[in-house]
Amino acid sequence: MGAPVVPDSALVQEPRNVADTLRRAAQISPDKPALIWQDRSLTWAELDHRVDLVAAGLGALDLPPVAGHPARVAIALSNVPAFAEAYFAVLRAGLVAVPVNPGYTGRELRHVLADSGASVLVATPQVLDAVEPVAEGLPLLHRYLADALPEAAAGSVDSGAGGEDLAALLYTSGTEGSPKGAMLSHRALLANHGQLDGIRPAPIGTDDVLLLALPLFHAYGLNSGLGALAYHGATGVLLERFDPAESLRLVAAHQVTLVIGVPAMFLAWSLLPEFGESFASVRLAVSGAAPLTPATARRFLDATGHPVFEGYGLTETAPVLTSALASPVPKSGSIGRAIPGVSLRLVYASGDEIAVTDDDFDDDAAGSPGTDPGEIVARGDNLFSGYWPDGRDGPDRDGWWATGDVAYADADGDLFLVDRLRELILVSGFNVYPYEVEQVLMAHPSVREAAVLGVPHPFTGQTVKAFVVSSGSVSTEELVAYCERNLARFKCPTAIEFVDALPHSATGKVRKAALR
For the residues 208-228, what does the mean pLDDT come to? Predict the structure, then answer.
């Protein structure tokens, strides 16, 4: 395609809409590669032009609002250029993006589509096939494949949406019920880039080449990956599905300088003999979403000469709260310190609390390793606006939000995660809540009761284990296959233990501590 003419309007200096970052990158570096996919490149000017066309096409659909908010567009795609085109076009059109895992089953897709009120679905053929049998009653008006996005001829499209306006609904697991939509404003998504940019030296710059191997439908890949790419006008190398050998090829071929990933990726890389040589161009590696084992961190350091910097965040915080990059020296097992612009406290069951940010860190109250754990409570412009539809369980009137995660601070102020107050299970950085898996298991005619826990796993950090009381003849293989028909693969139990009975409390609640 020919390079389009870059709009001659004034440069976007302070973006209010996340899509403004794309416009700014196209104005500053129009001919620079924005995305490289299957060894083909798309420049920032070309991507900006494509986004204008799709934004105009979405605007021409005259989509109905949802509960007083702009219409929702669900995007269920893997890491392909069309994801970026659709995502930025939705935001530029003043609509709300709903990124969805394309590996979801029909049942899971229906919940997200129904709860969000999505009227448009951009998806893979497999997702459209999965939705078809469960589409009755859904508000879907339009469905598009990645290579057939709606377009309309238009000049430069500029949305009036931004700031506190809702930009994205990201569905995240809770401890009960179904996944909840975290309401992320343009303000929250943009703020996290500015906060990270306050670290010295800054983690990402315009000259960086970033590997986009994390799924773009996940908060980590969406904002720390794709969003950061546009914010800084860097270059991204897309990988549709993580494959250790192929990703190493891409890193070497495109001289990738920055890698963000999850522990399972670093473990897989560290076991390949060509790992160190392939990572010769990489100046910075960041891991998040789950703890990185010391053995993996050590192998990475030995092979590359660089440490892996760990961090911590949640979907609701867009997503980064802490990073070892904010500490003078990274420590094994530490998630570092609060990034600039984020305030953190540790709150204890007694009601006591200590501040753990640099400006007011209470070193007299800090603990030694393994002591004085408290719940992490956060405040910052990157926090979400509560859960859809009414903003429930969001930050309090003073802006503080309890994460449900427990940590301690050492004498230097570096944080170490201890446990989770909630019973979430983290599989390769993806949230799995036991309740949903238990409900699927107990829907099987031969299962009387089930309880689900997260157990350690060397590749994925955690995996799902189920304790099952059967009411008939059923095999492990049959139950696993049943789960795979009703749950995304990362949610499915990898271990099932049949027991005669589950331990219960006096009120009838399963005592999971006894199972552990």
Answer: 96
| The CATH number, out of the four listed (3.40.50.980, 3.20.20.150, 3.20.20.80, 3.30.930.10), of the domain defined by the range 18-28+42-162 | 3.40.50.980
Residue 368: the pLDDT is 44
Indicate the Cα dihedral angle 10, 11, 13, 16, nearest 10°: 80
Annotate 104-136 with b (16+ C-beta within 10 A) or e (fewer).
bbbebbbbbbebbbbbbbbbbeebbebbeebbe
Assign 439 a pLDDT band (cuts: 50, 70, 90).
confident
Q: How confident is the model at residue 292 (pLDDT cuts 50, 70, 90)?
A: confident
DSSP strand E in 348-492: where? 353-355, 374-379, 401-409, 415-420, 425-427, 430-432, 447-457, 461-470
Tokens of 283: 């100046």
Return d(Cα 279, Cα 253) in angstroms, integer. 10
Asked if 262 and 236 touch (Cβ cutoff 8 Å), the reply is no
Integer Cα distance of 250 and 53 in angstroms: 30
pLDDT at 175 over 80: no
Q: Which one of 3.30.70.100, 3.40.50.1860, 3.40.640.10, 3.40.50.12780 gives the CATH number of domain 189-420?
A: 3.40.50.12780
Q: Write the pLDDT tens digit of every residue in 48-79.
A: 999 999 999 999 999 999 988 999 999 999 99
How is residue 357 written in tokens?
């940010």
Give pLDDT tens digits for 77-96.
999 999 999 999 999 999 99
Give CA separation, 494 vs 301, 432, 444, 446, 449, in Å. Answer: 31, 13, 17, 19, 18
Encode pLDDT of 361-383 as tens digits: 555 555 544 456 889 999 999 99
247 closest CA partner among 220, 229, 224, 274: 274
Residue 184 three-state SS = strand
Q: How far is CA 511 from CA 243, 343, 447, 500, in A?
A: 39, 35, 19, 15
What pLDDT, on the 0 to 100 scale, is given for residue 433? 76
Q: How far apart are CA 221 and CA 238, in angstroms?
A: 11
Nearest CA to 316 out of 172, 112, 436, 100 is that of 172
